[in-house]
Amino acid sequence: MFTVSQLKDYLRCPAQAFFIHELRRVPSASNMALGIGTLFHEQMALLLVGKYNKVLAQLPSWKLCTDEVQDAYMKHYLYIVAERYYINPAWEIIHIEKALEDPGINLQGRLDAIVKWNGKYWSLQWKTYSNDLAGLQEKVRLGYHEVAYQHLASINGYTPWGGTILGACQKLPSYRMAPDRRSKYMITPEDRQAAFTTHYLTRSPDEQASLLDNLTKHLERMSRDWALRLKNTDSCFGMFGNSRCPYFQVCHQGGSIGSGNYKTAEPRY
Ligand code: SF4
Question: In the chain, what's the furthest Cα-to-Cα distance?
Answer without folding.
Answer: 61
